[in-house]
Amino acid sequence: MTKQAVIEINNVAKQYGKTDVLKDINETVRDGQVICLIGPSGAGKSTLLRCLNRLENPTSGEIKFDGQDITVLSEKELGSIRENMGMVFQSFNLFPNMTVLENLKLAPIKVKHWDDSAAEKVAYDLLERVGLTEKAQAYPASLSGGQQQRVAIARALAMNPKVMLFDEPTSALDPEMVGEVLSVMRELADDGMTMVVVTHEMGFAKQVADEVWFMADGYIQERGTAEELFDHPKTERAKDFIGKIINS
Amino acid sequence: MTKQAVIEINNVAKQYGKTDVLKDINETVRDGQVICLIGPSGAGKSTLLRCLNRLENPTSGEIKFDGQDITVLSEKELGSIRENMGMVFQSFNLFPNMTVLENLKLAPIKVKHWDDSAAEKVAYDLLERVGLTEKAQAYPASLSGGQQQRVAIARALAMNPKVMLFDEPTSALDPEMVGEVLSVMRELADDGMTMVVVTHEMGFAKQVADEVWFMADGYIQERGTAEELFDHPKTERAKDFIGKIINS
Amino acid sequence: MKTIKQLFAILAVLVVSFTIIQGQPAIAHAATDDSLAAIQKRGKLVMATSPDYPPYEFQTNQKGKSKVVGMDVSIAKQIAKDLHVKLVIKSMTFDSLLVALETGKADMVMAGMNPTPERRQSVDFSDIYYVGGQDFLVNKDEASKYPNQKSLANQKVGAQTGTLQYNLAKKHIPGVTVKGMDKGADLILALKTHKLVAVGMEKPAAEAYVKNDPSLVAISSTYNLDENSSGSAIAFRKGSDSLVTAVNKSLKDIKQDNLIHKVYLKDAGKYMKVNTANTSMGHYWTYFAKGVQYTLIIAAVSGVIGVVLGVLLALMRLSKVKVFKWLSVSYIEFVRGTPLMVQVLFVYFGVGVIVNLPALISGIIAVSLNSGAYIAEIIRGGIDSVSKGQDEAAQSLGLSRSDIMKSVILPQALKNIWPALGNEFISLIKESSIVSIIGVTDLIYQLNIVRADTYRGVMPVFIAMVLYFIMTFGLTRILNHFEGRMQHD
Amino acid sequence: MKTIKQLFAILAVLVVSFTIIQGQPAIAHAATDDSLAAIQKRGKLVMATSPDYPPYEFQTNQKGKSKVVGMDVSIAKQIAKDLHVKLVIKSMTFDSLLVALETGKADMVMAGMNPTPERRQSVDFSDIYYVGGQDFLVNKDEASKYPNQKSLANQKVGAQTGTLQYNLAKKHIPGVTVKGMDKGADLILALKTHKLVAVGMEKPAAEAYVKNDPSLVAISSTYNLDENSSGSAIAFRKGSDSLVTAVNKSLKDIKQDNLIHKVYLKDAGKYMKVNTANTSMGHYWTYFAKGVQYTLIIAAVSGVIGVVLGVLLALMRLSKVKVFKWLSVSYIEFVRGTPLMVQVLFVYFGVGVIVNLPALISGIIAVSLNSGAYIAEIIRGGIDSVSKGQDEAAQSLGLSRSDIMKSVILPQALKNIWPALGNEFISLIKESSIVSIIGVTDLIYQLNIVRADTYRGVMPVFIAMVLYFIMTFGLTRILNHFEGRMQHD
Ligand SMILES: Nc1ncnc2c1ncn2[C@@H]1O[C@H](COP(=O)(O)OP(=O)(O)OP(=O)(O)O)[C@@H](O)[C@H]1O
Ligand SMILES: Nc1ncnc2c1ncn2[C@@H]1O[C@H](COP(=O)(O)OP(=O)(O)OP(=O)(O)O)[C@@H](O)[C@H]1O
Ligand SMILES: [Mg+2]
Ligand SMILES: [Mg+2]
Predict the structure, then answer these.
(1) Which residues contact B107 (CB under 8 A, 6 or more apart)?
(2) What average pLDDT does the structure give for chain B?
(3) pTM score, two decimals?
(4) Domain-by-domain residue ranges, chain D?
(5) Ligand 1 and A248: CB distance under 6 A
(6) Which CATH superfamily is domain C134-224 in?
(7) Which atom of ligand 1 is nearest to the CA of A90?
(8) ipTM score of the complex?
């Protein structure tokens, strides 16, 4: 039995000025699925991800979240959608003027209007989950990259989202810190979180991904399990790309 | 028959203020060897590399290049040493105010006082070697990361050095560009160039490196072939680190 | 003005008397008075005047030709008509008038001259034909509030510093605050902006202002002044009784018909109107043009010197020689820590002790020294802005320090600092305005001249403002153009 | 000064005469002259003077007590001694002196007064005791080059604008260029810096300068002036013949012994020296303190208003409403494209047309409006400097626009702009110097007063410079302190 569709992407296209970045995307993300999105630089991976929570608005097409078309929502109505979609960025984007704890408490207090103690409880639970309880009072600048990214994941989780979006979460990290972030993500996937992850960590994709999408030139060129895609790419474009990243 | 020592590092230590970055390094690089230097962030890998061509001066100890102690050379005398040691950086560091060709010609003309046509000939030879002849007149900003790094390698080679130093040459690159740079480096190694490479590309190390040095806390903790070090690390420190980078 | 004129006249008389006593050949002090006959025989009456005192007599430009007009001229014309002769007008400085009379170069002098006892000793005077007296200018909309001198009690009244009007007001208006200013135009402005309720002024000047500005009215003062100090009469050589008698007859007729107020002053007013029309802002464009020119010269020269000085200071600051570094840092910090205005004064007065410098040079030196400090910091910032990696890459290729600077660092630094340098040049245009305080004829200085000349307070300021904006905006455009051409990426 | 005094006196006489004619009870015009007897009976001689005319008469501060001294006072003392009575000195304004005489409040008036014919009509005068005359000041090192008036031909000579000296020089020195300036101190400075070769001045004033400044010498003019205009005499009530006779006897003795030049002027000079000693820079600290105070007030108030205005303009510029954006951009560009100096003039004269604003308020408004534009750009830059990622991260958490601004963007922006904002506040201190041109008593204005008062050109400028530096340096330190406290990383 196929699970229920959480995100439906129908005929989505996106232009910046005259350049077509997304050309005609039609995909579905189902409840509990982990999707890995791969593809060369400039393919439009980040753009697609950012369309999902309306950081960008598609030029045409519709994106349904829980059956609701989010492309027609006003700026004000977006809040409720974004609460339900956590996002983690390549460059962490923690708020440097707040402690780790304050980073985690900000959104629950401001958006969900929780009281301070409730927010603090949830924050500490999440810090324990990412293994950083002792850094609660630290400022982001004093943390290593891996630690910052784990805090960023916790911060997104603090809103208790239905879906998590990751945009190359490990590519700004020193190699020995990649593992700690991936393991947090792996646990998240194991707990049944619906996830869309832009990544080139093939190990992670093979272990966790239900589906890998290969994107190039504004289209999803190929779709399949990690094994299908990495070991037996069908299109020339995919063969070439996968050859390059395995070769290194 | 062991080849002749090109670089000898004897009791080298380096402090920045009160922090000991290098503590007591004793190593030898022999003619034609390819050394890979690995280790966690902050271990002192870049510092050691930069001591080899006197971008930094060790606090104590001596570094011999072709039998000559370079730590005692004056600023003026360094030119002749540096001519013989090419260096390639993580961030490419091409001169943005010059075309690719001008980047390559600058040092031969200024340092070796070649005439323009001789320098140009060598530059074109090298561009062919790295596969970028058609980019001769382009400015660096119009090149991809992988292309820039290949130009940087060609630029270092233009001085016809005896040794090449690489400091994480691929870690600022998009994954699909890593391969093209590594293959240039591989060819260089095959041609018998003496190389010291800071990298975390295990595939490259396994294929090319004669020796891998594992550095942590200011010491070379372990030394061996790639297989020895990656598959059977002896020290705890190395086990932990290699576990982390393989894990990802 | 009148005050000075009086003093002058006294001196002139003294000098003339002295000359005569010394035995110089005095001309035609005929015992028999043929003064009138001589004129009628010649057929022309020579009048000497000093045409800088409207509405009495002043120059006007009509169709490019300068002409002496005014109340005195009208009267003189009437007199000449009555005598059936032609009127010839000779213009000279006020203090030469009586000398001209004594030496026979003129038959009479009309110049709003007061027949003071001193003057009466050396020349004859006609009857008094006009009593100027003292007026106050007030705003028309407040005319009902301040109808007379009495109503000015306890108010703020303005007058030119050090003039009769200033002292009169201080002395005779109870409880008054007298505000002294240097320039008539500033007083009028202060009045119109209600910083003052009235301005004390000689009647004809006041009337001239009123004619030129419908928002002002004049009210008469009630100071008690004697006619000999405030009335005007025509001066003749001593013993010209027949001429004086004839002229007095004419004057009597003029008075009877009230021609002075009814016709002559109005005519004079008309000329003054023409003058004002001619002196609209457009008419002063040469003034503004000169100001713009000086402003640009100062900015350009200072900019060039500033760059040279800036490079020097920046290299000193980056040098390894401690003394150079320290000197450069101290200089830069001190200059950046004090206002340009005080630096301009310091150079003008301080350096002036050693060598004699004109104001323009002093101004350029001060602005250059100032911008040098700022440019030095910009250059240093530019060098710092070139990433350390560039330096290291160049070093690892074996390039020498100077080659690295020349080929790698400076070209990139220059590109990086171009916008900041551009801003500095734009600042220079603006800051050069400060040299006006030491009397350099830059745009601000010229603006003040135009302001004083036209009695218009805001318009010249506004025009200067627009001109400055055009200059800075234009420069911005030019700089952006060059910046575009420097881009490689 | 003397010129004005003369005019004043004329008026005073006129007024007094008028009063008498009007039938006011005139005092003691005794037919029988008991003037001398009365004084001797009372045992005191009351002298009225106006002590603001060194070296004739002036106030001096000794041990905190103010005292009238000077040549006239010395002479009066001698006279009183000769008459065997005590001298009582009454100080009043120059124009009240003759009134005081007429109304019996004083027995005699000594105030460097010239016995002009007008005055002679209402009062009696003693013999002339001192002929001031006209001098030129020249530099001592050039004294041999310019030994007399003749040698000044074709040279640059200075004089106060609009004075007798100015006109005399212009008229009587062949080929001369007369440079007029407003302030005596500026003239001296121009002389000492060799911008002028000589400065025309009344003899006693010239001598005062010479006494105070060893690098200057005075040379006499050869203008021919009559004693009644340039000599000084003592005024008495009409008909005080016996007193006048007695006084003339004293004066004759004084002249015979050459006491005036040998003793009195020297004594006066000493007092002036004391005055100058007292008026060293330290003595003027209150002036500088007031200047610093005003400068800081202007900078602080303008800074606060500027920040408010700046936030407003920045938000307008970032707003999506086109009109707001356009208004803000135009305002900012225009203000940044024109000099503060012209803006100050514009506000003072322009806004003054609508409401009556004191100079201080005008100055603060202009500086605020100016800094508002710069601060707006700093704030906008600060907001831009917060990486886009921060905004996106906050958005993706579902935060509202205003929460993002308040909690994420502005705190980081503030930290980023702190140094730039600090620089702007420092600029404010420096730029507030420009309001001195509209007469606000800031540090520059005060410096100019001290300069005029002390005849010292460079020192006050230098002191102001140091004070400015202390202010800006101090502020830099304070700002750095706060910047340090804002760092989280
Ligand atoms: N705001 C923007 N304005 C104009 N062009 C943009 C903008 N954002 C992205 N682009 C362009 O859209 C294209 C796709 O960008 P995108 O960031 O989605 O690629 P990507 O697949 O994430 O690449 P990478 O692996 O480098 O992150 C690129 O060519 C990029 O230059
Ligand atoms: N110029 C410097 N001044 C002070 N400390 C420095 C300097 N350069 C490096 N360090 C410190 O020396 C230590 C080693 O730095 P180094 O760059 O050699 O490490 P690395 O092994 O190359 O790490 P990475 O993998 O992050 O490049 C670090 O703790 C770093 O902070
Ligand atoms: Mg991307
Ligand atoms: Mg490193």
Answers:
(1) B155, B158, B159, C397, C398, C399
(2) 93
(3) 0.67
(4) 1-31, 34-127+231-277, 134-224, 283-488
(5) no
(6) Periplasmic binding protein-like II (3.40.190.10)
(7) 27
(8) 0.70
